[in-house]
Design goal:
The protein has about 180 residues and is α/β, with parallel strands linked by helices. The chain contains five helices and seven strands. The chain has a domain of about 120 residues: Vaccinia Virus protein VP39 (Rossmann fold, 3-Layer(aba) Sandwich). A seven-stranded mixed sheet has the order 3-2-1-4-5-7-6, sandwiched between helices. The mean pLDDT is about 95.
Length: about 180
């Protein structure tokens, strides 16, 4: 099941249908009520504000586990963070969350700014630390649900991708026998 925020004129919904095949269920979300008409066989469009956490919770309850989430919606910091916080836990155990247009984290018009607290990029940087919490020796920095359920994060120009998966505490093993040539 694929969920995309930011339907606009619906072209990407059809592209996902073509890419994932006719058996895939495609959901779209947009704030513009005109987008509701863009649904079709195995394509449904929800109308709502992605910064509205109740809307996001109701959406998650209705559609179930999400295999692929593409966040290409309104691009404000509140929208991006709310969508991640509310829907990432509803991804399938091996799901993927892709958020586009994170360059808006640097644009004041969208609530951004270089290293500005509250931007999605600063939020994602903190999650990169959390991804590695198993290795911390700091008593206040502990493993949490994100650490246990996120296999990887990938940063690209204007895109961050999160891959879910079960993660257990890393461990090191030494195997084999070390042998060195005799000293001369």
């Amino acid at each position: 099941m694929i969920l995309e925020f930011g339907v606009n004129q619906g072209g990407s919904l059809q592209m996902w249908r073509h890419y994932f095949g006719g058996k895939a269920t495609i959901y779209g979300v947009d704030i513009d009520p005109r987008c509701a008409r863009l649904g079709g066989p195995r394509i449904k469009v929800f109308i709502g504000d992605q910064e509205d956490r109740d809307f996001l919770r109701n959406l998650a309850a209705e559609i179930g586990p999400i295999d692929v989430l593409i966040e290409d919606g309104g691009h404000t910091m509140g929208q991006q963070v709310a969508t991640f916080e509310e829907l990432y836990p509803h991804l399938a155990p091996d799901g993927v969350f892709l958020i586009e247009d994170v360059h808006t984290s640097y644009w004041p018009r969208y609530g951004g700014g270089y290293r500005k607290y509250g931007t999605f990029m600063e939020y994602a940087k903190a999650l990169a630390d959390q991804l590695n919490a198993w290795h911390s020796r700091e008593p206040d920095f502990v493993v949490d649900e994100f650490t246990r359920t996120t296999r990887s994060m990938h940063f690209y120009d204007s895109i961050v991708v999160f891959e879910r998966g079960t993660v257990v505490k890393p461990h090191a093993e030494k195997t084999g026998q070390r042998s060195f040539p005799p000293a001369r």
